[in-house]
């Protein structure tokens, strides 16, 4: 199967075979909140037409491949008047991924009066150069591309940027340049922190997504737009660079733990949009997912950007593939993503007074409630920290533990969690296409004692219990060796005992150091611990000695219904989401992880609890 066919299959499955629904039941779409979303505008043109692909030269001489889609009349003739522009800068070969509408090109925008420009970033698709994933040179290209787009005959000098995933990340870096032509950002599932969000969550290599992603970029780059004397050398250059310059060397160094590639450094900071988000002055709409690979970073980008410009945040119940297309929308009055983006561009690019700024600031899907709700900001302004303590009888309660409560142990097995919703999540939703309960959210398999999980479960809730925002697990653990991995899952357990994963976190214990100046506190509790992940911050464990570790659990929004229970499941790994580099793995094999929960070692789970009244009116 070709890369083009594989991409088409994955996107089609994501959109069609995984429970797509047009709306959520039981919600009045004429409610005041729903009215804030409503927007319709007739198409201006019946057709679209693509201009021939061409090359534009960057300041260092590298040529990038670009193609333009324009509105066209009934006969297919492209318009000749200057238009507002939507720009997409992609690493997924516009010539291959462009075969899927709403990916590299979006005909919906074009029929509504926009020119749509797609550019292969350097070293990808049919562009020249070596790909080094959001490097400083690539970021400079983003500005030079904007210079070019703003001055073309089909452009009226006003540009909005759009696209999911890679194309969302390029938008944040582009907006940081504050180019005068850049009027609006619509970033779908963008990354914030390259190290913490995705590549080395908890200090461990993400062997689920990173090889898949780099392989996709490389594979699509090996598909020429059409066989030609110019195309073949570019394809060969991309493959050679992948093997010798970037993809293979980066993956190998990370897995082996050599050259300090497994520590946070300038290399990862340069590639992290959160480092430049405070420079964004372009109105920005962020779309994220509760099980997206960038689940952690999307609200952080919103939070940083909204301090300096208009910003909105929409988070659905999605993995990465599903979020890229807003699967299941419209629902609860929330329109499909194209309609939202059109409204955003019409207002901020074209200057139309259409109330785009009046859309809710934050809209999130709530697990358990199974509906979208809105809030005035993120984190939720009404959130308060609640600390749930682990107990020796494996219960979870708001009461502090007593002296002498029992500790519990689990084997250190580096491949636990293989059949879990986090595996579906960290393969970008690809494995979630398989009809297995564990990939759809059910966590009971991972909680069997033989597989190593230790669970702590609350009594059934006396009333609905709502939390929304970052989560932290503060655990006292001991290892039989000098290091261990600690993986946690927060789950909802129904009356029949079915445990559904809501979110997860992972940490290499020797990298437990916390920088409190960069952490998030709520009511005195560290709700989002920030770990430096540097060689200098590493602290070996003393075998058998209980040590406090603070684990960042990625943010979520969930309602634990009356009669359901809250559960924390603890194991020693979350594979393939995280695998310790080879240099760390040897310290974590064939040992035991022991969880303490007595008065002297009060292990706990900290949640951002929100009053149920906050759900009213949604």
From TrEMBL:
Q: Which SMART domains match?
A: PepX_C
Keyword Nucleotidyltransferase in annotation: no
The stretch of residues making up the signal peptide is 1-17
**One Pfam family here:** PepX_C
Question: Which GO terms of the molecular function aspect are on file?
Answer: dipeptidyl-peptidase activity
Keywords in alphabetical order: Hydrolase, Signal
Q: Does the keyword Signal apply?
A: yes
Gene3D superfamilies in the record: alpha-amino acid ester hydrolase ( Helical cap domain), alpha/beta hydrolase, Galactose-binding domain-like
Superkingdom of source: Bacteria
| Residue intervals of the Xaa-Pro dipeptidyl-peptidase C-terminal domain | 342-606
UniProt xrefs under NCBIfam families: CocE_NonD
Query: What is the protein name for this chain?
Result: Xaa-Pro dipeptidyl-peptidase C-terminal domain-containing protein
């Amino acid at each position: 199967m070709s890369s083009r066919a594989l991409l088409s299959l994955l996107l089609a499955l994501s959109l069609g075979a995984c429970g797509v629904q047009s709306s959520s039941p039981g919600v009045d779409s004429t409610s005041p909140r729903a009215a804030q979303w409503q927007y319709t505008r007739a198409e201006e043109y019946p057709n679209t037409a693509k201009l021939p692909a061409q090359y534009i030269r960057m300041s260092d001489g590298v040529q990038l491949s670009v193609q333009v889609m324009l509105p066209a009349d009934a006969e297919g003739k492209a318009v000749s008047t200057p238009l507002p522009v939507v720009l997409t800068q992609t690493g997924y070969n516009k010539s291959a991924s462009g075969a899927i509408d709403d990916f590299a090109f979006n005909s919906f925008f074009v029929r509504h009066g926009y020119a749509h420009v797609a550019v292969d970033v350097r070293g990808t698709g049919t562009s020249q150069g070596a790909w080094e994933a959001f490097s400083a040179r690539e970021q400079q290209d983003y500005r030079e591309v904007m210079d070019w787009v703003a001055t073309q005959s089909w452009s009226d000098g006003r540009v909005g940027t759009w696209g999911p995933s890679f194309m969302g990340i390029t938008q944040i870096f582009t907006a940081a340049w504050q180019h005068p032509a850049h009027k609006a950002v619509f970033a779908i599932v963008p990354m914030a922190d390259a190290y913490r969000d995705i590549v080395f969550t908890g200090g461990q290599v993400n062997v689920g997504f990173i090889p898949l992603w780099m392989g996709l970029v490389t594979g699509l780059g090996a598909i020429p737009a059409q066989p030609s004397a110019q195309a073949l050398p570019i394809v060969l250059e991309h493959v050679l660079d992948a093997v010798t310059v970037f993809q293979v060397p980066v993956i190998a160094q990370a897995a082996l733990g050599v050259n300090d590639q497994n520590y946070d450094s300038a290399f990862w900071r340069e590639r992290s949009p959160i480092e430049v988000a405070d420079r964004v002055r372009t109105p920005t709409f962020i779309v994220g997912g509760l099980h997206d690979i960038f689940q952690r970073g999307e609200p952080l980008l919103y939070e940083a950007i909204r301090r300096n410009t208009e910003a909105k945040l929409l988070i659905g119940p999605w993995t990465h593939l599903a979020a890229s297309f807003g699967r299941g929308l419209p629902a609860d009055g929330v329109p499909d993503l194209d309609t939202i983006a059109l409204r955003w561009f019409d207002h901020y690019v074209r200057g139309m007074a259409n109330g785009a700024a009046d859309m809710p600031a934050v809209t999130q899907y709530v697990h358990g409630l199974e509906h979208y709700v809105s809030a005035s900001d993120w984190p939720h302004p009404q959130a308060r920290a609640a600390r749930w303590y682990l107990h020796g009888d494996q219960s979870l309660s708001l009461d502090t533990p007593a002296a002498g409560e029992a500790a519990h142990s689990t084997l250190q097995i580096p491949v636990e969690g293989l059949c879990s919703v986090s595996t579906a999540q960290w393969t970008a939703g690809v494995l979630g296409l398989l009809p297995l309960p564990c990939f759809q959210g059910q966590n009971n398999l991972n909680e069997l004692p033989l597989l190593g999980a230790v669970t702590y479960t609350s009594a059934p809730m006396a009333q609905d219990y709502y939390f929304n925002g970052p989560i932290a697990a503060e655990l006292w653990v001991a290892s039989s060796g000098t290091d261990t991995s600690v993986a946690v899952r927060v789950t909802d357990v129904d009356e029949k005992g079915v445990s559904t994963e809501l979110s997860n976190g992972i940490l290499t214990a020797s990298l437990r150091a916390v920088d409190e100046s960069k952490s998030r506190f709520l009511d005195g509790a560290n709700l989002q611990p920030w770990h430096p992940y540097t060689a200098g911050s590493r602290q070996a464990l003393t075998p058998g000695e209980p040590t406090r570790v603070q684990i960042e659990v990625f943010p979520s929004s969930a309602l634990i219904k009356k009669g359901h229970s809250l559960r924390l499941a603890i194991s020693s790994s979350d594979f393939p989401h995280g695998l310790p580099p080879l240099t760390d793995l040897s310290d974590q094999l064939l040992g035991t992880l022991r969880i303490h929960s007595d008065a002297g070692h009060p292990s706990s789970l900290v949640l951002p609890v929100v009053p149920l009244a906050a759900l009213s009116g949604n």
